[in-house]
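W.,

You were right to be curious about this one. When I first looked at the sequence I had no strong expectations either way, so I just let the prediction run and decided to look at it fresh. Below is the sequence, 141 residues in total, followed by the output.
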Amino acid sequence: MCGHSRGLTVAWQWVAKAENDLRSAAHLLKVGDCPTDNVCFHAQQCVEKFLKALLVAQGIEFRKIHDVGELVILLPPRLRPAINGMEQDRLTEYATVTRYPGDYEPISLAEARQAVKIARRVRREVRRLLKERPPFSKEST
């Protein structure tokens, strides 16, 4: 298997993992006394894995991190999902701060729903990009 098609195969493996995180977040939203911290963690993981799918498909190496903003900045501008700095920072907090015990405000149900909404938006954009033929033409990045 050539490097490019191997990269796309691995990218789609990242997508499968991201889809599982989104499915988990959406399912948890339906639970009575919803564990909002877990919803937000899975939403963050979904976004992180979709970004890593794009990076792998592009052949861009990345460190093992959970910082959404750092992953976004590694992508060529044309491939960056529409996710603003505040959203990037908040999603990162869900994986690095609110996932653990600490002194912070509880996450509201509305905030958890917003996190899932962001994850779905990133999902749409990344899946569209991965389906381009040929994917990510060098001239357009």
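Here's what jumped out at me. The chain has a mean pLDDT of 91. And, maybe more interesting for your project: The CA atoms of residues 7 and 59 lie 7 Å apart.

Coffee later to discuss?

I.
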